[in-house]
Amino acid sequence: MRLNAFIAKAGICSRRRAAEYIKLGKARVGGRVVREPWYIVRDEDDIVVNGVRLRQEKHAYFIVNKPSGVTSTASDAHAAKPITDLVPKGQGRLYPIGRLDKDSRGLVILTNDGDLCYRLTHPKFEIEKEYIVTVKGSLDEKTLAQIKKGVYNEGDVLKVKSFSNVEGKGATTALNVVIAEGKKRHIRRLFGGMDLKVLDLKRIRIGNIRLGELKEGNFQKIERERFDICLNRKAS
Q1: What Rg do the C-alpha atoms of the chain give, in angstroms?
Q2: CB count in 10 Å sphere of residue 29
Q3: Is CATH 3.30.70.580 the right assignment for the domain spanning 61-124+209-235?
């Protein structure tokens, strides 16, 4: 196995971050500094990263229906309501795949599998994420076309891959949007760039993993094989 993949599978970080650590000389194999992320290692090798000796963790996978007000950034030690509190303890160092800001809700995947995190979040794999967005006001054809064309905001071009189920509800409009990238606060910034206030944002799908009927605040433990459909599609 490549060294960066071994580090990711140990639950330390993503494969991309592992490669950065290795290039900075923070990884040792058998006591020797290795700077090549592709360096081949074996399970029995003595591997140390940032002074920590690594052992392969048993991987765990959870889907969680995050309520509004819960923080999905696992690294925030001062968060009043971290998302990791919604799943059982003793599962290793879990971190979120597909973060949601504190005011948003819906599907978050928690795992200690750094390789899976890399494959589901790196832009080159174009893993789809689907949301139900509710905005204040109505959306005409010109506005809908602009949502797909995109807007320029803080140095980023923000757009959706597709949208559907546009439905006016009195003074608000709800629609499903799909994105295949994940810039920070992507959807809120996109609609905000068109002077549209997002009243509610709920993620219902990442790749082929759907929120389904899972109740808000609850979790479901799943198997690694559930992710194979979307991963194999991008690998082919």
Answers
A1: 20
A2: 19
A3: yes
The CA-based angle 18-220-211, given to 5 degrees, is 90
Among residues 46, 76, 101, 113, which one is catalytic? 101
Residues forming CATH 3.30.2350.10 domain(s) in the chain: 128-206
Can you identify the CATH homologous superfamily of domain 3-53?
RNA-binding S4 domain (3.10.290.10)
Closest Cα partner for 62 from 52, 51, 74, 76?
A: 74
Burial of 192 (0-12, 13-18, 19+ CB in 10 A): middle
Sequence ranges of the chain with CATH classification 3.10.290.10: 3-53
Q: What is the pTM (predicted TM-score) of this model?
A: 0.77
Q: Is 101 in the active site?
A: yes
Place of tokens 């993620």: 203
DSSP for residue 120: H
CATH tag, 128-206: 3.30.2350.10
What are the backbone dihedrals phi and psi of residue 26, each rounded to the nearest 5 degrees, phi first?
Answer: -95, 5
Per-residue pLDDT tens listing for the chain (236 residues): 899 988 887 877 888 889 999 999 999 999 999 999 999 988 778 899 988 888 766 789 999 999 999 998 765 555 678 899 999 887 777 889 878 999 999 999 999 887 888 889 888 888 999 999 999 999 999 999 999 999 998 888 999 999 999 999 889 999 999 999 878 899 999 999 999 999 999 999 999 999 999 999 999 999 999 998 777 755 43
- DSSP type of residue 215: P
